[in-house]
Design goal:
About 45% of the residues lie in helices and about 20% in strands. Helix 2 packs across helix 9. The radius of gyration is 36 Å and the shape is elongated.
């Protein structure tokens, strides 16, 4: 289960992302948050810090560009040439374009805002005097970081929820959140990678749970259609013999009795729509009575000499063994589960069934020790661990 319901962004991961563009990793975090119902926030202090930093970089780059143009022209004048820099956007034009891009990014990713901290200048001054993180321990630096952190803390004090602040800033790491908050709040400071890992793990848990619920619904549909499944398996014994493989010891199948449903497999749940036919695989175990492949059928007019190997091989001695079979069915996906299966294919697995032996072994030890459903569960778990697969 996810340990937080809100994500607050410091400026550090957004600057590293190339703000106002967003890196693939930040987009993944925002996508996962939306999928899991996690709210995302950008404090107003972060937005203004990012804008100030972008504008400062713009002015430095324009200044560097003009200086480079001057240097180039000094060299060109020696040969009677000249370079025209061209039109450079004004600061106001650039800031307007920047803010438009920021507004579009915030709207697209549903980033909510957090107001500036209401802490008084006096209180901030005292934090700085006390060298309390995120203020620097040796100087008065850290006002911007303190404003961001305190604004998040105040937001949580007003509207509590388990939260994380995404940052790698070491000053934040040193901050003692409980001492800065006026009442208890749940706020962890994590780098972007750690937040992504928690979101991915939570999503995997939810999807695994949904998939397991889907398999249980398919299991119910297959179980309810067990007579039809048995009829399908027994309908074409020659097809079943071929499914057992070219090198099988089974020569001729006399009868088949499906005995046990081991596992049901379904496709990934989010990919299907109501009314869609879904291919479901049911792994079953069946008792197969057969004549071994080494049996030699004799012509009516010919009799094998008594006591000979030929007579021994000619004696049809039926054998009975359990085999693992996989039956595939097309099943309509309905709003509340699965409909009636239509069985379409059959194949044999490379291992023999052990349910009957397993059941007899445990029940012979203590018939009252385990109920039938507990026995079945224990057996399925054993099969899943590979304990009863044939060598």
């Amino acid at each position: 289960m996810l340990s937080f319901k809100r994500i607050y962004f410091d400026s550090e991961p957004l600057v590293a992302s190339g703000w106002p563009s967003l890196s693939a990793k930040v987009q993944v975090v925002l996508n996962l948050a939306q999928s899991l119902g996690v709210s995302t926030y950008m404090p107003h202090a972060v937005r203004e810090e990012l804008e100030a930093g972008w504008c400062a970089n713009l002015q430095r780059n324009v200044k560097a560009l003009r200086k480079a143009a001057d240097v180039l022209n000094r060299g060109l004048r020696a040969v009677g040439s000249h370079f025209e820099l061209g039109t450079v956007p004004t600061t106001d034009e650039s800031v307007e374009a920047y803010r438009g891009r920021v507004d579009a990014t915030i709207e697209k990713w549903k980033l909510q805002t957090v107001d500036f901290a209401s802490m008084t200048a006096t209180d901030f001054f005292r934090l700085a005097l006390a060298r309390k993180a995120p203020f620097h321990e040796d100087t008065d630096e850290g006002f911007k970081d303190s404003m961001i952190l305190i604004s998040v803390i105040e937001h949580l004090e007003h509207d509590p929820a388990p939260s994380v602040l995404v940052t790698k800033d070491r000053r934040f790491a040193k901050a003692e959140v409980p001492t800065l908050a006026k009442k208890a709040i749940s706020l962890r400071l994590l780098p972007l990678e750690a937040v992504e890992n928690e979101l991915v793990a939570a999503l995997e848990t939810i999807l695994q749970r949904a998939w397991e619920e889907d398999r249980q619904k398919a299991w119910a549909a297959i179980t309810s259609a067990w007579p039809a499944l048995s009829e399908f398996v027994c309908a074409d014994l020659e097809r079943l013999r071929e499914a057992l493989g070219l090198f099988s010891v089974v020569g001729k199948i006399l009868s088949v009795t499906p005995t046990f449903l081991v596992e049901v497999t379904t496709p990934f749940p989010p990919t299907r729509a109501i009314g869609e036919s879904v291919m479901v695989a049911a792994e079953i175990e069946a008792d197969i009575e057969y004549i071994p492949s080494w049996y030699v059928e004799q012509p009516e007019a010919q009799a094998a000499p008594k006591g000979s190997l030929y007579e021994l091989l000619s004696a049809p001695t039926p054998q009975r063994e359990g085999w693992v079979l996989t039956v595939e069915a097309s099943v309509p996906f309905l709003k509340d589960g699965y409909g009636q299966p239509t069985f379409v294919s059959l194949r044999a697995e490379s291992r023999k069934a052990m349910w009957s032996s397993f059941r007899k072994l445990l029940l012979s030890a203590d018939e009252d020790a385990l109920q039938e459903d507990h026995l079945a569960k224990a057996y399925r778990e054993s099969v899943a661990r590979g304990r009863f697969e044939a060598e």
